[in-house]
Each structure stands twice: as C-alpha cells, then as structure tokens.
Write a structure and sequence with these properties.
3 domains; Arc Repressor Mutant, subunit A; seven-stranded mixed sheet; homodimer; DNA-binding
DNA sequence: ATGTGTGAAGAGCTTCACAGCC
DNA sequence: GGCTGTGAAGCTCTTCACACAT
C-alpha cells in the first residue's frame, strides 16, 4: 500500500482544479509547479508532492499539461459524471445555492430540493421543483444522491440529519453549527461562520503584535488561514 | 514568550464557547475535560492542553467552572464588547446573515450593510439599513468595523476586497471561492462550498475501502473533517 | 537550463501517561 | 477516587535539497 494521502492534500485538489479551469480559459496549456503555486498561494514543493500521491503527471524540465492535469484531478475527485446533490431547506441560503451558476461547471448538480412550507412546495427554481420534505426518504431512495446539503433552521437540523442517516446518505454539508452526532461512516462537514469570524477577529486584533515580532526576526506564529 | 498557540486551538475556542453557553442554559456549573470532550467530539487531553495555553482554569479532581470558563474564552476571543461587522452584498446570503438570530449572542453585530441595487438601498432588515455601496469607504471609516463579510457576486469580489483593503479593514470573510490576493496583514477566510463538497464526495465514495482497512486492523487514514 | 519526483529534515499538532492537587 | 496540567512520544503535514529527466 502506498503511503497514506494527507487530508490536506484532498482539500487542495479542488482549488487546483478550479485554477486549472481558469488556465484553460486563458489558453495556457502547460504550467509548472512554481506558477501554479503562485496562483494558489502555496509552496511549489507541496504541489508536486500532492500530485505525486496519485501518479507522475509532470514532465521534468517542462511542467504539467493543463488539460490533462485538470481531467486527472476531476477523475480523482470523482466529479464526472456530475455528483447528484439534494438540498434540504429552501430559505435564503438554499435559494442562493439553487441559483449559484457554477455548480455544474464544478461537478455538482442539485437534483432535489425540499422544504416544509406549503407556499414554497411546488415552486420551481432553476429547473428544480421544491418538494414536500415529508417525502424526503422516498425521493432520496429513488434518485441516487451523493451528497445532501442541510440548509434548515438550526432547531430542525438534528432531526433531518437523523432521517438522512437512516436513509443511507453518506455525506452531509450542513449550515448549522452542529455537533450532529452521526455514525462514523457518514461524513459531515459544517459551515460554521461564527467560528471563522471569531478566528478572524482573534488574529486580526493581534496583528500589531505579530508585526512587531516579525521585525524582531521571529517566525510567524500562525499560518495563513484559508479554506 | 510562552510556546506558540496552535492555529487549531484558536479554531476550537469558539466551539467550546458555544458548548459552554448551552451548558449554562442547562444549569450545569462544573464540567470536566472528559464531558466537554464528549460534547465536542474531541480528546480530553487536547481540551486541557488548549486551555493551558491561556492559564490554569481548572481545579484538579473537580473540573472547570462553566461560567468562568465561558467568560474567559469570550475574553480571549475578544467578543465583549460585541464585534462590529459590515456586510457587503445583500443578496440571498447577505439576507440570511442579516436575519440570523444568534449573532449577538455569539458576540457579533452587523451594524452596516451595503448593496449596489437601488431597489434594495434604503430598505431596513432587522434594524440595519441597506446603504449604497458607493459610500462604502466613508461609512466604514466613521464606524469602527472589526470584520467585513463579502457576500457579493464572484465577479465583484476582487474589486470590493481591494477597496476594503485600502480602507484599512483587517479581516474579511468572503463567500467567493477566492484567491483574493490581499496583503499579509489582512486576514481573509473564504467559505468555499465546492471544495468542501468535493472533499465529502471523495471520502464518502471511498468509505467502503476504509471499512475494509479497519477490519484488517489498520488505522484510519483520514481524520474526521469538521470545520 | 528548467522543472519534476522524492527521501530526509523540520515544523506543527495530538495523544499518552503520569505527577500533582482536590 | 477524580481530574487537571504537562513533558515526552507519536503522528501528520510541509519544506528542503538534490538526483534525475527533458
């Protein structure tokens, strides 16, 4: 077995993919780890190492072929064919997601949307009809859904998450700052804005001190935070 | 100088804070690292270590006083008085943020909101009047803003970010999957949904294999992802 | 010359394990 | 007995530095 792949490496694959899509649009067909590092704000070595976990994609003395690399990464991430996403909760956030124009380019397609408000049920947004959340389980089973996005009020999140787990959903992206207590075989990621805001506030209010420290030649105390 | 504080520790402070608020509501006045670890899905040792960077808050044989600990963490994060936040872009996401009921409990207050659509300018949401983004710089300077939230269309993000930087803003939370290329003294965090979705898809589709691995007694290959 | 792939060194973070205090 | 605080060990991820390919 090859040495295990860092979780961080997986997290960088999609940003690489996005950068490569841009490069294709610009007509560039070869890129070095140094140039890509500039674009992504990373060290070139880590880019080479990231790719090396999956194979030898580059040519020494030349660099990487942009479109080959892009396709390779898309395959590693499994984004072809498009991943089918179900959205639960069509409030402001759910609405924004349904209207987000780039999901399909990026490899995702919202194919189901649910809400519990009768005024919303039956409405169609961007080709997706909002359905009654009562039929959640039935509908999830008939479509093969890869990922559920939970955009319901915080109070409803645990109940829905539990229903999703029971239905066999394997991945949940939640907008509730959760401790959703899911079994280990279900992957959950929470978008926790307050935590990110708190972190930003903490570091930005200490920036004065770290500037002083860096004048003294000490090393940076915190790494640059970027998701 | 004390040993440097891990970035990860800072990222856990707010979840601790939130958990402690809940405990207070439940009337609990003492908690051990073991119980808190259970609530937050962490190892007790890391909780003790996290707190130890800031002082000796616990009593051996007893645990931590819930309300003292909560107040201490709130102070470390600098969340009293409330941090003043400016929101740029009142689309669906901006709207959702303005309506989010818990910000003030959590230490944040949106005091300014901007948009460029004349139909929105002048409207009042949750006590905040939407202003013309033309006056961004002037208004930011007159209020003392700790954090800006960027919820504008992707195409507008770089321009606005640049204007914020020029105005002296120190922290930006952006909803555009960005490489915002800001100077180092400005802290930027991007909420990048597609990257998180890609990560979830990657791991959830490989779950079968890691189950097999764990039957063979090998260690987990990826840590649980939770922001 | 230019730029990849990678072992080894280094940095950062977590967990262990236990002394010390309640 | 119960639980904290912490050095040391262990693990993970990043960076260095250079052999090797074009």
């Amino acid at each position: 077995m090859k040495t295990s792949i860092p979780n961080e490496t997986i997290g960088r694959l999609f940003p690489y993919f996005r950068a490569l899509m841009c490069l294709i649009k610009e007509g560039k067909d070869t890129i070095s780890s140094y140039e890509l590092a500039d674009l992504c704000n990373l060290n070139p070595a880590i880019i080479r190492k990231d790719f090396s976990y999956f194979g030898d994609f580059g040519k020494r003395g030349v660099g990487y072929n942009v479109s080959n690399l892009m396709n390779t990464i898309r395959n590693i991430l499994g984004l072809i064919p498009l991943k089918r996403v179900a959205l639960i909760g069509v409030g402001n956030i759910g609405n924004a997601l349904l209207l987000y124009p780039n999901f399909e380019l990026e490899g995702f397609k919202i194919v189901l949307a649910f809400d519990n408000q009768s005024t919303k049920i039956g409405r169609k947004i961007n080709g997706v009809t909002i359905e009654d959340v009562s039929y959640l389980e039935k509908r999830l089973k008939s479509h093969k859904i890869h990922l559920c996005i939970l955009a319901v009020p915080e109070s409803a999140a645990p109940v829905i998450a539990h229903r999703l787990a029971k239905t066999g959903v394997k991945a949940i992206l939640s907008f509730s700052p959760c401790q959703l207590a899911m079994p280990d075989n279900i992957k959950v990621t929470c978008v926790d804005l307050s935590t990110e805001m708190a972190r930003l506030v903490y570091y930005s209010s200490r920036e004065i001190f770290s500037e002083i420290r860096s004048l003294q030649g000490k090393t940076e105390r915190h790494k640059k935070v970027s998701i």
